[in-house]
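Input (structure):
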């Protein structure tokens, strides 16, 4: 019985050793830097960022700001609502606002959605459309 336990123990230790050597030999990804249209670095990411992480960094969102999908009443078609990605900045308690406009800052073009469409899919499409607008404006991830 002890011989079987010793064999099992050696098998486990070999697997553990093989697992640690494979994890240490993985290539380390270089950090990715988000640059604005003027070439200034805005944020650095250790892994490839999601669309939402890119938007938060590019628009310099703070903890009390809100980003999400809002219905754009001016773009609706019959019963189908047009949705856009919007950014609402919180008041900064006496400090100047980032924008003079009261209300949402639209980050994406309108997208008509049918009733019953999954909200997560709509959000992903709006995030992707907003990131596409960043790239068209000259932002780069290098």
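Output (sequence):
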């Amino acid at each position: 019985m002890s011989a079987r336990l010793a064999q099992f123990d050696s098998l486990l230790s070999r697997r553990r050793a093989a697992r640690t050597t494979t994890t240490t030999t993985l290539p380390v990804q270089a950090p990715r830097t988000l640059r604005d249209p003027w070439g200034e670095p805005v944020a650095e990411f250790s892994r490839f960022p999601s669309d939402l992480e890119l938007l938060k960094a590019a628009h310099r969102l703070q903890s009390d700001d809100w980003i999400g999908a809002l219905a754009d009443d001016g773009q609706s078609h019959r019963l189908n609502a047009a949705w856009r990605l919007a950014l609402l900045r919180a008041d900064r308690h006496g400090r100047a606002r980032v924008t003079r406009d009261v209300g949402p800052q639209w980050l994406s073009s309108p997208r008509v959605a049918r009733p019953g469409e999954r909200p997560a899919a709509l959000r992903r499409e709006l995030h992707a459309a907003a990131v596409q607008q960043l790239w068209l404006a000259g932002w780069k991830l290098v």
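Notes: DSSP finds three helices and seven strands in the chain. The radius of gyration is 24 Å.
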